[in-house]
Design goal:
By secondary structure, this protein is of the alpha/beta class. The protein contains nine helices and eight strands. The longest helix has 14 residues.
């Protein structure tokens, strides 16, 4: 069964306390926090102080996704603020990946590596045994509400194949344009963990939405397609 994380990127920050409570009430598995610096992606969001405030409001697992240049400079700050996992982008640090992974591991939190839709998945193959999760972005990172890029399913299938070949235990995650329709395609391709933002916000019954997403597994997908 799929794990489900909720991204706060498109939420009303003036109502964030209530939104965090809604995520908890719906029993999502974790909260996904997109940190953007305006350089690596064309948007700016928030820093460690926001993570610290969210940590005060919830016991849910916090996955901090660093879409920033020089992520190594800020790892300790985000961990101190309450991050349970640091996910960084291969594209920001492609020549010092192992050093960056080691730095995150030394902070005693989970480690995730992310790639953009156009990045060759083979680029991260040497590091798969060193991380806890791989995040395949299924839209160009920077803004919420975009449409799912189906071409990324090929990367997901490769990650799933390699995982089985090596009997590895990294989680395969997706983020971007994830709704019930695209989530089914992703899980069928081998995804373990889904990240939803706009679709959760728009759901009239958030509890039901979370339950349906978490219930996705290959056997039930084949039965419903």
């Amino acid at each position: 069964m799929a794990k489900l994380g909720i991204s706060i990127l498109s939420m009303d920050y003036m109502e964030l306390g209530n939104e965090i409570k809604a995520i908890g009430k719906a029993q999502a598995d974790f909260i996904h926090l997109d940190v953007m610096d305006g350089y690596f992606v064309p948007n700016i969001t928030f820093g460690p102080d926001m993570v610290r405030q969210i940590r005060k409001e919830t016991d849910l697992f916090l996955d901090v996704h660093l879409m920033i240049n020089s992520p190594e400079k800020y790892i300790a700050e985000f961990v101190e603020a309450g991050a349970d996992k640091i996910t960084f982008h291969y594209e920001t640090n492609e020549y010092r990946i192992e050093e960056l992974i080691k730095k995150i591991n030394n902070c005693d939190v989970k480690t995730g590596i992310a790639i953009k839709p156009n990045t060759k998945v083979e680029s991260i193959k040497p590091y798969l045994n060193l991380v806890d999760s791989v995040l395949q972005m299924t839209v160009e990172p920077g803004f919420g509400g975009q449409s799912f890029k189906s071409k990324t399913l090929k990367n997901i299938e490769k990650l799933s194949e390699w995982k089985k070949e090596k009997n590895a235990d990294y989680l395969i995650e997706v983020d971007g344009g994830i709704n019930l329709k695209s989530a089914k395609l992703c899980v069928e391709s081998g995804v373990d963990s889904l990240i939803a933002g706009s679709s959760f916000i728009k759901a009239t019954d958030k509890d039901e939405f979370v339950n349906r997403m978490q219930s996705l597994r290959v056997s039930t997908i084949n039965e419903t397609l």
